[in-house]
Every structure is written in C-alpha cells, then in structure tokens.
Specification:
Elements: E1 17-20, H1 26-37, E2 41-46, H2 52-61, E3 67-71, H3 77-91, E4 96-99, H4 114-142, E5 146-151, H5 164-184, E6 189-196, H6 205-208, H7 214-218, H8 232-239, E7 250-253
Parallel strand pairs: 1-2, 1-4, 2-3, 4-5, 5-6, 6-7
Amino acid sequence: MATPNYTNTPFDLTGKTALVTGASGGLGSRFALTLASAGANVVIAARDAANPQLQRLQSQLQETVEVASVSLDVASQESISNAFSQAEDQLGPVDVLINNAGIAIPQTALKTDEQLWQSVLGTNLGGAWFVAREFATRLVAEKLPGAVVNITSILGQRVNSGVMSYAVSKAGLEQMTRSLALEWARHNIRVNSLAPGYIMTDMNRDYLQSDDALPMIGNIPQRRVGDPADLDGALLLLASGASAFMTGSTVVVDGGHLQSSL
C-alpha cells in the first residue's frame, strides 16, 4: 500500500505558494486566510492591487505567512502574465491556483444582451481559462507539480430564473475542470472544482437576510445558508496533498441544496 504523500497533517500547505484571484472581497479573502492558516504563502490578486480591502488583507496575512499582492485582470492575458511574474519574483513559483474571480449580473434570458453575456462568460469562464493556462504553462516549463481549484457553483448543475449567463458560465467551468484534469494529469497538475451553494457574503447579505430569501432557504435541507467557514475543509482538501489521487472532481458544499426539488 502506498504511503500518503503528506507528513504532519493531510491539509498541510507549508512551503507552498497559493495564488487567489478575486481576493479583494467575498469568498476570495476567506480563501486566502484559510490557505495561510494551513501554512501556505499567499499571492492575493485583484484588478487593483491598491484596493484598500486587498491591502488590509495583506496586513492581516503578513502576521503569519509571506504575502504578495498583485494586480490581475482576468480579462487581460498581459495582466495575467505580469501578475504571475510579479508573484514569482516575490515568492517563487506558484504551486496552487484558486480560480475564484467571477461576477454575477442577474437578468432574464430574453433581456440578456450581448454585452452582459460577454462580460459574464468572459470573466467567469474565459478569465478562469486564461489564468489556469498561464499557471500550468509555467509549471510544465519547470517540470513542477501543481493544483488548480476552480470555484464554480451549484448553479452549474441546476437552474434558477434570472441567472442564465451565470449558470452557463459555471457549467462550462465544471466541464473545463474535467477537460484540463484529463490533459494535465501527465504533468502532475491536478484540476478540481469547488461548488458552493448559497453562502453569506457582503455581496448577498441583504438579500439572504430578507423575507424574499425565506422560501429558498426553506428548501435547503439543512434549513440555512452557508457561512464562508463552511468551505474551509473542502478548499484545503482540493488544494493540498490530501487529494493527491483526485482530479477532475467537483466537491459540492451546499447544505444538501442540490438534493432538493427546487
């Protein structure tokens, strides 16, 4: 029987460098803190590295690990390349990529115009692809292993009204996860996805705490929305050696929502 390829703990990321896109708010900042808690040095990336939220996060992370903040626009391949170069200059090669940057613009299908469609698909799917490709290209050139965690959504597996473009982008990201896992396994690069259900963040707090959300919450088998901390274990599983024999998988964290009828 093979010996597990971890030492002190299956979730240990000591000596690894993780890059988190969309780190200036929402789940991204939580992901960065979670990775740091497991010992990883962290590159926090957002469109503007001078963003006050990103700077506060950097100050917090620096208390325990090495940190770099970089400007990264997932819609610009030049920006992506520059961000990785800056990260490598400061912290060395990136071992773990958390593909978290994304947007949601609620709109019905009939009212979704080309600009909205291109914006959502370009960020959530195209941007994730460009970042993953840059990450893998550098690792392959140096013959180094790595792990990609694409942040998808349960809306990539089910539908809801008014979020067609977002749901399509997340479904595409899950299929991209499987395709890249197949192609990059030979390079020892694992690609998995984490699919959250409804998680309380500053972006959706007003809605999820309103009466309008009560029917939806009542349809979640655990009868609550998630807290960002509920994603910690799944994130560390996919980012660490604990999932050494996992690639092309999607881990769903939704309180059982996918098992409900609506």
